TrEMBL record:
Statement: the UniProt record of this protein carries the keyword Transferase: yes
Residues that span the membrane, as ranges: none
InterPro entries membership: P-loop_NTPase, Sulfotransferase_dom
Top-rank lineage group of the source organism: Eukaryota
Family, per entry: Belongs to the sulfotransferase 1 family.
Keywords, comma-separated and alphabetical: Transferase
Protein's name according to its UniProt entry: Sulfotransferase
Length: 347
């Protein structure tokens, strides 16, 4: 891969003296391990977190007061968050800029237009001013937290949740490359073999994968008007239909006039991997965390895992998929078109 490695100057996240005793104690009594990038992770309520991120999560659980009109983009890391941010923003805010030449995505990165609750807004501030932070309306926030971590203020409000996941083989490879492109001071990245073993044990930030996916899957089955469950592979296969569905789900369907004007196709184009990765801000800009925007754009292929995973790794993950998804009714697509490699976890 041609991307240059990013040097992250901040120290590895760990205990900070300024944190209150209760949180320090929570960390000290939680099981601890290392992320794929070699950073400390803490196991809390069934999932793995970096300490500072967990602090931010607890802050927004306590303080976030959503509007019914807010939209939450919830994703498993490396499953198309950047794409979904661009799509959701373009669908919801499509009447707030004069023309496609003035489209904010030509100037700003998707992660600037839709900010993470835990990495951006609450990262350094337990009670940020969300009112002034969001320029466009409705407000759109994003998060990687599992469904069980969403505050009741979100679950009980009218705000909609758009969730995206991806097959775990591509997700893992995407994550491995991502972590390897971010060198953190004092941290030793893992080899592919070591990283894969950790991934299978669910030990990476926001893991385990299957618990996170199933949490949203079940919630969506119970409340499909509130949660839209998307898969990266489906978006890759037919983006226009998914943009239309997204607009309907969010309560802003395309008018006949917009259809005739080709608005759907324009959104698909402006949000495409090929377009976004050429935008100056995405080539040279930085995310607030110090991560270059360019590392969010790698290959964007379905089935790229087949170039990296050994047959025994594939077998191990296939067994895990079968075991974890079992009778959930959820099908994950390992390749783009339906082939014998697709996993059908039918009831
Ligand atoms: P690969 O590493 O497989 O290329 P996230 O945004 O959740 O961090 O996910 C990153 C993955 O989404 C990367 O996958 C990246 O290349 C891909 N991606 C980024 N922008 C995309 C876009 N506009 N369309 C499709 N895929 C995109």
């Amino acid at each position: 891969m041609s991307m240059e490695k990013a040097e992250i100057v901040s120290k590895p996240d760990d205990l900070e003296e300024s944190w209150d005793d209760e949180f320090q104690k929570l960390l000290q009594t939680s099981p601890k391990d290392r992320s794929l990038a070699g950073l400390d992770l803490y196991f809390y309520q069934g999932f793995w977190f970096k300490s500072r991120v967990l602090k931010a999560v607890i802050s927004f659980q306590e303080h976030l007061r959503p509007f019914d009109s807010d939209v939450i983009i919830a994703t498993v890391p490396k499953c198309g968050t950047t794409w979904l941010k661009a799509l959701t923003f373009s669908v919801l805010c499509r009447n707030q800029f004069a023309s496609d030449e003035n489209h904010p995505l030509l100037t700003f990165g998707p992660h600037q237009l839709v900010r993470f609750l835990e990495y951006d807004l609450y990262y350094n501030n337990p009670s940020p001013d969300l009112e002034n932070d969001c320029v466009y309306r409705p407000r759109i926030f994003s998060t990687h937290v599992p469904y069980s971590f969403l505050p009741t203020s979100i679950k009980d409000s009218g705000c909609k949740i758009v969730f995206a996941c991806r097959n775990p083989m591509d997700m893992f490879i995407s994550l491995w490359f991502f972590q390897n492109n971010i060198i953190v001071e004092n941290a030793v990245p893992l080899s592919l073999d070591e990283a894969f073993d950790k991934f299978c044990h669910g030990i990476y930030e926001f893991g385990p994968f299957f618990d996170q996916v199933l949490g949203y899957w079940k919630a969506c089955q119970e409340n499909p008007d509130k949660i839209l469950f998307l898969q990266y592979e489906d978006l890759k296969e037919d983006i226009n239909s998914h943009i239309r569905n997204l607009a309907v789900f969010l309560g802003v369907p395309f008018t006949e006039e917009e259809e005739e004007q080709g608005v759907v196709e324009e959104i698909a184009k402006i949000c495409s991997f090929e377009s976004l990765k050429e935008v100056e801000m995405n080539k040279k800009g930085m995310h607030a965390s110090g991560i270059p925007n360019s590392v969010f754009f790698r290959k964007a292929k379905v089935g790229d895992w087949s170039n990296y995973l050994t047959p025994s790794m594939v077998e191990r993950l296939e067994k895990l998929i079968q075991e974890k998804l079992g009778d959930s009714g959820l099908t994950l697509k390992l390749t783009c078109k339906a082939t014998s490699k697709d996993h059908i976890a039918s009831a």
